[in-house]
Amino acid sequence: MKSSGSGALNTSRLEEEHQQGRAAGKTVFPIFPRPCRRGPTSRRGWSGRFALALLVAGCSPAVIDESPAHLPDGGGGAPAAPPSPAACDASAADGVAVFASNVDTGDPQAPGAPPYAIDGCWLVYVGAPAAGDGSGDLKLRDLGTGEELLLAPAAEEPRRPALAGDVVAWEATENGTRVVRVRWGGEAGTIPGPFDHAGEPRVEGDAVVLTGWLTADEAGDTDIFLYEPGQAEAVRIASGPGQQRFPDISATHVAFADFSEDPDGRFDEDERDLADIVVYDRRTGRATPRSREGKQAFPMLGAGERVAYLEWEWMHPEPKFERFDLLLGDIAAPGSGDAVAASIEMAGAPYVLPAVRGELVEWVERPGGGEASLRRRPADLSAPAAEVPGLSGLELFGPSASATITVLAARSPGGELELRGIAR
Questions:
Q1: SS3 for 22-87, per residue?
Q2: pLDDT in tens, 206-221
């Protein structure tokens, strides 16, 4: 997708689908009434404030059509603002069937991204595909009420969802091209930018960060882009020789993997691969490398003022997901002081990142010849890792976490892949 450089989001396809959806009695999404600018904020769940700002600015906030004829579950509908975390418990996620057909091969869900994400009492997930479909629908579920909203049909191949507050972003296929879609303040669209195609989105309550490919070549040059409400297009915040990829975002920082020191400058499984983690300060615009020997990638922000990432210092080839170290350090301190939170073994696919959120880091351990287990450790490393009980005998996929609930997919021998919710 080459950006036109105009409009807050690419909504031409949305307008067409809006009319077609109403005619077919399907869930439809609102269309932007008129572009309105809004400054960034570090706080999540700003739907109400955003609607008020639109009214003050003289433009009408769009409202989801919640009439029963247009809801996938026949009535109710997801709320316009995130419910309180106290409105649900972990068991509300149990039994949700999720998409698994391509997770094991790394396409399109992995590396590093499960087909589900949770924040507060909202769960976004790619559902199990219907008979004959190659993917599932992307849905947003209120765990407090069980009500759901269809975000993207299976035909768009939705994948890698990310969720924070009322912001949902995901990869999709649009006219044969990989794009990043976002639902924000009840409105959905494709994020434009000065790139050929885009992917690997992560979200905070006030922004989406993503990887943009500058050419159609998947092994070609990539940069890191940030999109905030009111912008005409995503803005480049990090560039350099070769690939910069796998960003994550918090209210104050963006972190990403920089492959510019690598001999071929890209992420692949070349035995000579090299990379560093770079931290970008959103307030100052300053980027600081956390230089270390070997290979570091897949940064994770979510544990306060700490940054976590995977390291393969002496392991080849990279990314070597079968065995890696999980490092954790103070985001304001040099990377040389980062500590090993866990040495993780995951014999066989799927390869999905640990979850780093609040006071805990969590990961799936899958030793060769042994049972998979979910393990967690305090983010301040004040205690050793402990196994989470109740998951014995199951095939486990990677976790996603909110402040109060961890979800991960589990499958019994011969069974379906379903979510399990665990209180934190």
A1: HHHCCCCCCCCCCCCCCCCCCCCCCHHHHHHHHHHHCCCCCCCCCCHHHCCCCCCCCCCCCCCHHH
A2: 999 999 999 999 999 9
Q: Could you tell me if 112 and 246 are in contact, meaning their C-beta atoms sit under 8 angstroms apart?
A: yes
Which uninterrupted H or E stretch holds 13?
helix 12-24
**pLDDT band at residue 318, thresholds of 50, 70 and 90?**
low
Tokens of residue 42, six digits: 């570090």
Q: What predicted TM-score, i.e. pTM, was given to this entire model?
A: 0.81
185: region left, alpha or beta (phi > 0 left; psi from -120 to 50 alpha) = left
With CA atoms as reference, report the closest residue to 175 among 35, 16, 18. Answer: 16
Residue 273's DSSP bridge partners are: none
CA 39, distance to chain mean position in Å, is: 23
Non-local CB neighbours of 13 within 8 Å, separated by 6+ positions: 174, 190
E-assigned strands of 228-358? Answer: 235-238, 244-249, 253-258, 276-281, 287-290, 296-301, 306-311, 323-330, 339-345, 355-357
